[in-house]
Amino acid sequence: MAQPHISTAPARTIGRAVTARRWMVSVLHILAEATDKLTAAAAVGVAATSMFEFGPQWAQLTSAFDLTLAVLALYGAAQLIRPGLTGLATWLDPDLRDGHDLREAGRLIAQVRQDLEAGDDCDDVLRELYVSAVAEQLAWLLEDLAKEKPEEITTLLWVTSDHLRDTAQALAPRQ
């Protein structure tokens, strides 16, 4: 009986640089999403400093025009900073250049889940989930992956694929 081929190549591990870049990408995305809240906090801080005359002298604006101009400048800066942070995150993301789009897909699905928790319509999300065929495509992907794995993993992947297909059929609109 022939021995199965066992790879002697070292297992591929994720290096510290890739981990650090992924962490930085996550932080940049969080900062980009929080830009509006940080801008509002800065505007409230400048307004409070001006009205109550405390804090640094440069932040104590004496006229309503100066205060309005400062708030508009903060808003304009936020409109420039957000795309800059998002662009930098895209440039640093090691998974985008490596062809690993699944990380981005997972982030987008997590964003949809957050939107749902924030009050989005469940029926709209279910309809879009059906139209996008995410469950069906993931089922096909798992079946393709099952072809190259050991039997115990193959069985799990096929079962999961079947459940995803059942889910895709359950999402179909009723006539």
TrEMBL record:
Name of the protein described by the UniProt record: Uncharacterized protein
